[in-house]
Amino acid sequence: MTTTGGMLAIDLAKGSFHVCAIGPDGAGPYNRVPSQALLMTRLAEQPTRVVAMEACATSPRWGRMAQSHGHEVRRMPAAYVKPFAKRQSEAEKKPIQ
Fold first, then answer.
1. d(Cα 33, Cα 2) in Å, to the nearest integer?
2. Contacts 24+ apart (CB under 8 A), 40-47
3. E strand segments, the chain
4. Is the N or C terminus of the chain more exposed, i.e. has fewer CB atoms within 10 Å?
5. What residue segments make up the domains of the chain, in order of their start?
């Protein structure tokens, strides 16, 4: 499986998801919150990418859906995701200078 379009990081939730795309050059082209229907459409439209998500109850379903469109899926344990989310929330509290 060859990925050409960088990486999609997906934070899974019940009604909407937080999706962050990272291009092959490391730049973040977008950061969005699509609905379930829109996420399914986006996965079908995207070039092949690595799709990273937290391993939770719904991740096998979304992983299979991403794989059916040619993406490489990587699920991470929550223990690896939580420290990253904590660092990000602390960074957001600091004023921008």
1. 27
2. 40/65, 43/69, 43/71, 44/69, 46/5, 46/8, 46/71, 47/4, 47/5
3. 7-11, 18-22, 30-32, 50-54, 72-76
4. C
5. 7-93
The label of the residue with tokens 């379009």 reads 5
> Which distant-in-sequence residues (6+ apart) come within 8 Å of 15 by Cβ?
35, 36
pLDDT in tens, the chain (97 residues): 555 668 888 888 777 788 888 777 766 666 778 888 888 888 898 888 899 998 888 889 999 999 999 999 999 887 776 655 554 444 444 444 3
Query: Taking the model in full, what pTM does it have?
Result: 0.72
